[in-house]
Design brief:
This protein is an all-alpha fold. The chain has helices at 2-13, 17-34, 37-44. It starts with a helix and ends in a 10-residue tail after the last helix.
């Protein structure tokens, strides 16, 4: 999960928002089965790859 979050962060830094969003969806899907507090926190952190809601 955290690999997906890190990829999302790198994609976002490179201006690849669509790829970042895809990686975050993958991380969220994996976290549903694992329930990692750290992963959930990282997914939600703006600027670190966190998902944009809305």
């Amino acid at each position: 999960m955290l690999t997906h979050v890190e990829r999302a962060r790198l994609y976002r830094l490179g201006g690849r928002e669509r790829d970042a969003a895809s990686e975050l969806r993958d991380a969220e899907a994996l976290d549903r089965g694992v329930h990692s507090p750290r992963a959930a926190r990282e997914i939600e952190l703006p600027g670190r790859g966190g998902a944009r809601r809305g």
